Amino acid sequence: MAKKMKKTQQKSIVNFDAPYRLLEDGNVENVMQDNFLRYSMSVIVARALPDVRDGLKPVHRRILHSMNENNVRSTGRTIKSARITGDVMGKYHPHGNVAIYDAMVRMAQDWNMRYPLIIGQGNFGSMDGFGAAAERYTEAKMHKHAEALLEDIEKDTVDFRDNYDGSEKEPVVLPARLPNLLLNGQVGIAVGMATSIPPHNLTEVIGATKHLMDNPDAETADLLKFVKGPDFPTGGVIYGGTTLKTAYDTGRGSIVVRGVAEIVEQPGGGTQIIISEIPYGLNKATFIEKIAELVTTKKITSISDIRDQTARGKVNIVIYLKKGAYPNKVLNQLYKMTPLQTSFSFNVVALIDGVQPKLLGLKEILVEFIKHRQVVIRRRTEFELKAAKARAHILEGLKIAIDNIDEVIKIIRGSESSEDAQTNLIKRFKLSEIQAKAILDMPLRRLAALERQKIEEELAALLKIIAELEAILADPKKIDAIIHSELDESVEKFGDERRTKIISSEVGKLSDEELIPDEDIVVTITTNNYIKRSPTGDYKRQGRGGKGRRGMTTRDEDNIEHLVFARTHDFLLFFTDKGRVFRLRAFEVPSSSLNAKGVAIVNLLQLQPEEQVRAVIRVNKQEESGNLFMCTVKGVVKKTKYELYKNVRGSGIITIKLDVGDELRWIRFTTGDNEVVITTASGQAMRFHEKNVRPMGRASRGVRGVRLRTDDNVVGMDIVRESVDLFVMSEKGFGKRTKVEQFTPHTRGGVGIRAAVVNEKTGRLVSVTALDENAKELIIISAGGQTIRLQTKDIPQIGRATQGVRVMRLKDDDRVASIALVGESEIEEEEVKA
């Protein structure tokens, strides 16, 4: 039994192996590679990529050809979409009606096609991503743009090939009177390659085509004088520049596309952002959902409501802003966080001669289109010439018959049959078979004198047409002239205005700076390194001698130490007790209310354990040159070129070598020709020229600026010039203004002269600041968090050897910590807002 089963199994194996041996021998790798290459070429040529000549993929070409064959034209009535897709699927495109219908629907959507090829009747989808109704519910017909692509197809202008089963003929390419590849663009994904071509304006493209025909050596730059850039059906704004030229040169590149938005102030108050155009290909519903998501997650906090009021194809998205919002900031946030600003990538791949995929630049596309039109015009002319000669040949025979009508009648009557009559006529008048047959088919009415005249006139006209057609075929310039003329006719018939605005400058990814309004702020830092920023408007103006209002809430044993006036786009340089410097943008400091504590500065700067910020200055973002002049608590000064601080890494850099127990507290910008005043807590002031201090490197120690007495320390350093005042402030709230001329210049390193009377009533000095003509107001903050804002003119101008007047009333256990100046331009801006 086992032997019998074994024989049976062997017999089965032999039988199953035999068919494989009949197929072929080869390893799996070679077979898979060969089959995959065949498959990929089939997808590339027969599905995914457009032909450069007519700009159509096979499915689009078959739809238009089928509609043309069935006379579904723009001047006629629409027919059921199901009837169109069924005819296309049955005769030309056996890939399923869904694929055919989807392609036809897109050709009818005016937000996808710059020049639609189909006129749709019924629900053909929307910009919100809703699909079209089923094909049994919609109707369609050809658009006049499509008819221009099919014009003269019946005149043997293009080749035809067998359909998939050999029962029908379909065109290899359409005659394409319009450069459709550029006009409507294409998007497709093949195997190993893809294409992405934007739509363009017809008038511009035809202008470039005519220029290239007249100037075959024209470069892309010459053509871009006509073609300004893509022209999307949804409008929008394109930021081009060099990237746009590169894309048209090479066929690859990327451009930034923005929607069109307008900030509108409402009569009753409030502000709206109205979006009237969106980037090409953007799903409007998804876009609105994205905005709503950003509002829900509090990434955008200034939007109160969103309404989509789009109607009849006109986009109208209304965004309502909260009271006090910055409209430009919100708009920039929308550009950065939503597809309201997006990019379009050029990848212009198309088929050359219907078989070879190639990456094409603008000039190459137009050259291929011109070559195609030259072939079409020549073939059309040859077809018309052939038809004209055939008709002239018949007319010549009819004319012979009419001129010899009596003899012709005699021959016909004497013949036994029509075949004999035809033979006898050919023999007697040396006619062709076609001419003899035409004579026999000629009705008797053609023998009338008037009919004879018509034959002669028609023949004369045909002979003239034949001469003209032969002249066209003999002269390529005449063919180009015809193309020129037809292009002009196309502009007159289809030309329209550009929808997309082109801006030559480039725009990249939006930076944080573009999302933050440039406004006046006050940055405060406590002894324990808590930091915050607040608008200057939070510091209300008061009269001299007031108590001020409650400011930053501080913890026990934590006092306000630094008060810096800046703008949100300025840089802030933070100098620490370790001799290092860090840099932040002012808007990177978290914004808080006036009485908020702020955040720990270690969350913003990479400080070492126990490292404290001891000085802060603001740097205007346009600052390019100059020096940083520094002063320590022990009176050491140093001057370093600012260019050494332009690139401060996140971990900070060394800025000064400090002695034990010394701290860097004051830094100012100088031009190299400034004077410096250093003031001590005991009321001494030292004025000298900065030229007395040579420039040093970042890691150096510095030199002596002022000689300190026992138990004295520096409390202020500032840059001064003639005709300014020095504002002197003591820790118990006394202050004054003194003309700088009263402080005579000395050589650095001395003890200086008296700047103020210091006693138990006033307390020691805490700050000395130069007031120029722009310094109209002061903000003073105490260690306990009290703040006051007052005008400098309310502070009396008195001499050096005085104690000053009470500027701020403090509690017994409180003291003045810091002051900051408010410039005239910022005051004016606030008054305008008020």
Reconstruct the topology from this structure:
Blueprint (H helix, E strand, L loop, with lengths): L1 H22 L4 H21 L9 H12 L9 E2 H11 L5 H12 L9 E4 L17 E4 L1 H7 L9 E3 L6 E3 L8 H5 L1 E4 L4 E4 L4 H13 L5 H4 L13 E3 L2 H9 L1 E7 L1 E6 L5 E7 L6 H13 L6 E6 L8 E5 L5 H11 L3 E7 L1 E4 L3 E4 L2 H42 L1 H9 L4 H12 L3 H9 L7 H26 L1 H19 L6 E3 L8 H4 L4 E7 L3 E6 L13 E2 L9 E8 L3 E6 L3 E6 L13 E2 L12 E7 L7 E6 L3 E6 L11 E2 L9 E7 L4 E6 L3 E6 L13 E2 L9 E7 L4 E6 L3 E6 L13 E2 L10 E7 L3 E8 L3 E6 L13 E2 L9 E8 H10 L1
Helix pairs in contact: 3-4, 4-5, 8-13, 8-18, 13-16, 13-17, 13-18, 14-15, 15-16, 17-18
Can you tag this structure with a few keywords?
834 residues, alpha+beta, Topoisomerase II, domain 5, Gyrase A, domain 2, 5 domains, 4-stranded mixed β-sheet, 4-stranded antiparallel β-sheet, 32% helix, 25% strand, elongated
Description:
This protein has 834 residues and is an alpha+beta fold. Helix 8 packs across helix 13 (362-403), helix 13 crosses helix 16 (433-441) and helix 13 crosses helix 18. The strands form twelve sheets. The chain has a four-stranded mixed β-sheet. The protein is 32% helix and 25% strand. It is elongated, with a radius of gyration of 44 Å.
Structural category: alpha+beta
Number of alpha- plus pi-helical segments: 20
Give the termini separation: 109 Å
By CATH, the architecture of the largest domain is named 6 Propeller
